[in-house]
């Protein structure tokens, strides 16, 4: 982005193309960042659920194992 700004300020012959590529790059970066944050939140929720279910069901695992139908 810094290079694009400098080229735009200088008045490079490809100014319009540089601006469009810089805008697309910025949009894609924001989209990637947003998706990555959503994924991180989902993984945090899954980990929290796993930990809480392990704590809640921990004592039940012995009970369920003893009465399993084979």
Task: List the defining traits of the structure above.
single chain; 70 residues; mainly alpha; 2 helices; 87% helix; Transposase
If you had to describe this structure to a student in words, what would you say it looks like?
There is one protein chain. This protein has 70 residues and is mainly α. The chain has helices at residues 2-10, 15-66. It is built from two helices and no strands. Helix 1 packs antiparallel against helix 2 (15-66). The model has no long low-confidence stretch (mean pLDDT 82). This is Transposase.
Secondary structure elements and their pairing?
Elements: H1 2-10, H2 15-66
Could you describe the largest sheet, including whether it forms a barrel?
none
Categorize the overall geometry.
rod-shaped
Span between termini: 64 Å
What order do the SSEs take from the amino end to the carboxyl end, as H and E?
Answer: HH
The mean pLDDT is 82
> Number of DSSP helices?
2
Structural class: mainly alpha
Q: Quick gist of this model?
A:
The protein has 70 residues and is mainly alpha-helical.
């Amino acid at each position: 982005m810094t290079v694009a700004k400098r080229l735009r300020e200088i008045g490079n012959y490809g100014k319009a193309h540089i601006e469009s590529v810089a805008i697309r790059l910025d949009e894609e970066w924001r989209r990637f960042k947003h998706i990555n944050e959503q994924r991180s939140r989902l993984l945090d929720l899954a980990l929290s659920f796993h930990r809480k279910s392990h704590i809640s069901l921990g004592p039940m695992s012995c009970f369920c194992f003893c009465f399993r139908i084979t």
